[in-house]
Amino acid sequence: LDSCPLGVWNLHFSLLPRWRGAAPVNHALLAGDEETGVSLMRLTEGLDEGPVLAQCHRAIGHEDTSESLLAALAVDAAELLRDQLPLLLGGGVAPVAQDHARATYAPKLRKDMGRLDWRRPAADLHRQVRALWPWPGSELQLEGQALKVCGVGALRTCYRDPGLLVWGKEGAWLSTADGALELTLLQRPGKPVQPALQA
């Protein structure tokens, strides 16, 4: 790090000090954050602890997945770097130290994070599917087989017992602890991803 006179810089896909670590976009979705962004930071020995020169913000929509957010943030990052590069090359920039007391962490994703638990609120499961697509993905157990849930839609009130997968003209719905979650895209073992009513 000390060998570069102008410093070593990184574009991190979060609004540091929130979500330091390997999977910031996924964890922002899992936590229900209303926004995320990109931070242009100077690298230090600590994990994403360096001072921040500039940030850009992006709202997180109800339909955003980790995949769509990463694509959008990549564009934001390129624009941020283009705007800040002349300052970096000129030297003398003054990045602002992070407030370490406000830091949160985004560890690597694990395969077991994808198990959907119908005992949790429907909104939590909605975020889980969106946050873990395309990897590690989310899944339910149906008739002893793993059914991957690749897309979700609306949330609604449901008066059925929790834990039921209901199929009908209105689509496929999973009843949960506090409502129902619409399943829009599903994948059975060895099959392609399909609309729920065709799966």
Task: List the topology elements.
Elements: E1 9-12, E2 20-21, H1 24-31, E3 35-42, E4 52-59, H2 66-90, E5 105-106, H3 122-131, E6 138-142, E7 145-156, E8 165-168, E9 171-175, E10 180-187, E11 194-195
Parallel strand pairs: 2-5
Antiparallel strand pairs: 1-3, 3-4, 6-7, 7-10, 8-9, 9-10, 10-11
Describe this structure in words.
By secondary structure, the protein is an alpha+beta fold. Helix content is 22%, strand content 30%. Strands 6, 7, 8, 9, 10 and 11 form a six-stranded antiparallel beta sheet that branches. It has a three-stranded antiparallel beta sheet with strand order 1-3-4. Helix 1 (24-31) runs antiparallel to helix 3. The longest helix is centred in the middle third of the chain and has 25 residues, at 66-90. The protein is elongated, with a radius of gyration of 20 Å. The mean pLDDT is 95.
Short description:
The chain is of the alpha+beta class. It contains three helices and eleven strands, in the order ββαββαβαββββββ.
Average pLDDT, rounded to a whole number, is: 95
Portion in helices = 10-25%
- Note the main sheet: 6 strands, antiparallel
Query: What fraction strand?
Result: 25-35%
| Number of DSSP helical runs | 3
Number of strands: 11
Low-confidence blocks of residues: none
User: Which overall shape is indicated by the principal axes computed on the Cα atoms?
Assistant: elongated
Instruction: Give the radius of gyration.
Output: 20 Å
Q: Look at the helices and sheets and give the structural class.
A: alpha+beta
Helix/strand order, N-terminal first: EEHEEHEHEEEEEE
Head-to-tail CA distance between termini: 52 Å
